[in-house]
Write a structure and sequence with these properties.
single chain, alpha/beta, six-stranded mixed β-sheet
Length: 238
């Protein structure tokens, strides 16, 4: 499997292009703030042919470039129905004070073709199999995408803002829920093989095994712990 990614825009949100190999069809995961030019560059450099945009959730730092990217490539965008409203009204998802600071310079809206994700569904796109897991807590409609293991290739989890290296997503914005994110960590992440590569919405690559051993939130989820605020470690993401 081929994965190319880069941190985009003011919030350093990781955008990924995923394909069976260079020169083939691909999916684009989370084209955020100022991501369009980076996406275009990677498509050209690796001779990729986009077939879909996949969104882990609806926060503006993950979807700000969805309209230009979908428009330029002529592909649909996939998002969970509980976060779809954020495409047209991202300020509502951020709260008034933060939203007013951020939205003045951004143009938002839905692309022409929007499709809705469902928990447990398997997307067959670009020669890839991507399992969708609904993972609320950071937002109500947060999801992850995971690929199966293949010969000499470990499984990959595109975790969005559910799980980071050493941390998890914040839960203090509208739709966030500390108890829900802990349940999502337990249901979505803990059953995965330690070799699973985690490509998150912000920060560096990690593995489930490393996070199981070192991430205080994942350890708390394994113990059946309560809301994420009960640990002193900082959370990340918008």
């Amino acid at each position: 499997m081929f994965v190319a990614g880069f941190p985009a825009g003011a919030w350093g949100t990781n955008c990924y292009l995923v394909a069976p190999a260079a020169g083939e069809e691909c999916v684009i995961v989370d084209p955020g703030h100022e991501a369009a030019s980076g996406v275009e560059e990677l498509i050209r450099e690796h001779r990729l042919k986009p077939v879909a945009v996949l969104l882990t959730h609806g926060h503006i730092d993950h979807i700000a470039s969805v309209v230009p990217v979908c428009g330029a490539t002529g592909v649909p965008a996939w998002i969970h129905p509980e976060d779809r409203y954020m495409m047209a009204d991202p300020e509502k998802a951020l709260g008034r004070s933060l939203g007013q600071q951020l939205m003045g310079s951004l143009t938002v809206g839905e692309p022409d073709d929007v499709r809705e994700l469902t928990d447990g569904s398997v997307l067959d796109l670009a020669g890839l199999q991507l399992t969708v897991d609904h993972a609320p807590g950071h937002t109500k409609g947060s999801v992850t995408f995971r690929t199966p293991a293949a010969e000499d290739i470990p499984p990959v989890l595109f975790s969005g803002d559910l799980l980071f290296a050493g941390s998890i997503g914040r839960t203090d914005l509208p739709g966030g829920d500390s108890g829900a994110i802990m349940r999502s960590l337990a249901r979505v992440c803990l059953p995965l093989d330690d070799a699973t590569v985690v490509l998150s919405g912000h920060g560096s690559q990690t593995t489930i095994g490393r996070e199981r051993a070192t991430n205080p939130y994942l350890q708390q989820a394994a113990r059946g712990g309560g809301p994420a605020e009960s640990t002193a470690f900082p959370r990340r993401g918008m």
